[in-house]
Structures are given as C-alpha cells and as structure tokens.
Design a protein that fits this description.
InterPro entries: HTH_MarR-typ (IPR000835), MarR/SlyA-like (IPR039422), WH-like_DNA-bd_sf (IPR036388), WH_DNA-bd_sf (IPR036390). The protein has 194 residues and is of the alpha+beta class. The chain contains 7 helices and 7 strands, in the order H-H-H-H-E-E-H-H-E-H-E-E-E-E. The protein has 2 domains: 104 residues, no CATH class; 75 residues, Winged helix-like DNA-binding domain superfamily/Winged helix DNA-binding domain (Arc Repressor Mutant, subunit A). The two termini are 25 Å apart.
C-alpha cells in the first residue's frame, strides 16, 4: 500500500475516534482537551504535574491549559496543591471524581470493540490492518465509510467500463479514485485467523 494511503487511513481512524470523544465529553459538559489534561495528570509523576508540564506534554499554550484547569477545578475533577519546598510551584492532582471520569471515558468503547474483533487476525501489510480496523470502527460507530469507489461492493467493471452497481450508472476513471458517502467496503483479505 502506498505511504499516502496508509497516512490517510491513520488520519481517518483518528478523525473517527476524535468525533466519538467529542460526543462523550459534550454529554458531560467538557471538551476533549479537558479529558486530555485529566488523562495526562492520571499518569504523570509528582515532578510533572504542573501547569507548565501539562502545556508542554499536550503542545498547548499556557493560557489554554490554565483555562482548562480552572474549569476542571470548578467541576471538582482536580485540585491544586502548593509545593512544600517552593511556594511558587503549584501541583495538580485528580480528585476521586476526576479519576473515576478518566476510567469511565478511556479508552473509547468503540475502540475496545474494534480491538477485540481485529486483534486475533494476521495481515500481510499495515495498510490492510488499518483498513480492517477502520471498517470495524465505522461499523461499531454506525458511521458511513466514505471509501474510494473502486473499493466498494457496488463497484463493477462491465464491458470494458466502470459502473456503480447501486445506481447502474457508468463511472469515469477519475470517479473510481474518489470517495463516496454510499460506499460499502469489500471484505479485506485476511491471512490467518485463529
């Protein structure tokens, strides 16, 4: 598989997961960045639980992190503690509610389901593994695949021309490389299943 196609599969999987993440956080009045802050604080040590460390790890501005921390503190998901040796340093830690929220929201349920379905299979390339993972994630999430025409169940080659089996219309060569919202993925070849 071409490197650009592999990159696009990774990008599409990421987009799907971000969309699901946004829905989950919106349901509780938070943004994904708030979840990222909580997740980081759940796994960092006592030397790395400061505003600056959060900003550096997430690649965000100090202002964005500061606003996020204020919101999370207001919602009682984290608490601030002044360093006992250096009063200028403020440490951040999760409350019980913050820990429970991290456990509840990560990892995403759809990813866990996809992992269960794909983990026992062997693939001949990373591209096939990613395509299968994406297809399973889309199925579990009940979202459209928006795949390329030529990889669709409806795609046909009839009398030396391309045709959409759903509409019975002829397709131009350029159409076969473009994505379609009515795409239904063809099953991917799997090398070995246990």
């Amino acid at each position: 598989m071409h490197e650009l196609e592999t990159f696009k599969l990774i990008e599409r999987i990421s987009s799907l997961l971000r969309s699901e993440e946004r829905k989950k956080y919106a349901a509780i009045g938070l943004q994904p960045v708030h979840g990222q802050v909580l997740e980081y604080l759940a796994k960092c040590n006592r030397y790395s639980n400061t505003h600056a460390s959060v900003a550096e790890y997430l690649g965000l501005t100090k202002g964005t992190v500061s606003q996020s921390i204020q919101i999370l503190e207001r919602k009682r998901y984290l608490q601030k503690t002044t360093d006992s040796l250096d009063g200028r340093v403020v440490h951040l830690s999760l409350t019980e509610a913050g820990m429970a929220l991290v456990d509840e929201l990560k990892p995403l349920d759809i990813f866990k389901q996809a992992e269960r379905e794909v983990s026992h299979q062997e693939f001949d390339s990373i591209g096939n593994a990613l395509q299968t993972t994406l297809s399973v994630l889309q199925k579990v999430n009940q979202s459209k695949s928006f795949g390329m025409c030529r990889s669709c169940e409806h795609f046909r080659v009839v009398a030396h021309h391309y045709q959409c089996g759903m509409t019975d219309e002829a397709l131009e060569r350029d159409d076969t490389d473009k994505i379609c919202r009515d795409h239904i993925p063809k099953p991917n070849p799997v090398i070995n299943q246990e």
